[in-house]
Specification:
The chain has 108 residues and is mainly α. Helix content is 71%, strand content 0%. It starts with 14 loop residues before the first helix and ends in a 5-residue tail after the last helix.
């Protein structure tokens, strides 16, 4: 953000784009972690499909919430989304770190 428009002084890009650029990397970090678990053959088959479905849901929820925040709307149920993001991110990244440590070899 600071490279494009430092401190939003010139209003070069719209608020919606700013919100999406801020929120969507978290979804992609979770997607990368699930993909790494798949490549390590830890999450396979139905579990992998369910994990991808959850990440798709997270993508849409994140995009909707970023869009609402960009236009100054903060729904009262927003705390549920925050709990979902924290719990799912913790599960995915925690399991990636755990299974990587158990295998005692680099993940690349």
């Amino acid at each position: 953000f600071l490279l494009i428009d430092p401190y939003k002084m010139h209003n070069i890009y719209p608020r919606l784009l700013e919100g999406l650029l801020y929120g969507l990397p978290y979804v992609f970090v979770n997607l990368l972690a699930v993909y790494m678990l798949y490549m390590l053959k830890i999450v396979q088959g139905k579990k992998y499909t369910i994990a991808l479905a959850i990440i798709v849901c997270q993508f849409f929820v994140q995009a909707i919430m970023d869009g609402l925040r960009a236009y100054g709307k903060q729904p009262s149920w927003h705390f549920i989304c925050q709990a979902f993001y924290a719990a799912w991110g913790g599960i995915v990244l925690g399991s990636l770190m755990y299974f990587t440590a158990v295998q005692k070899k680099p993940i690349w």
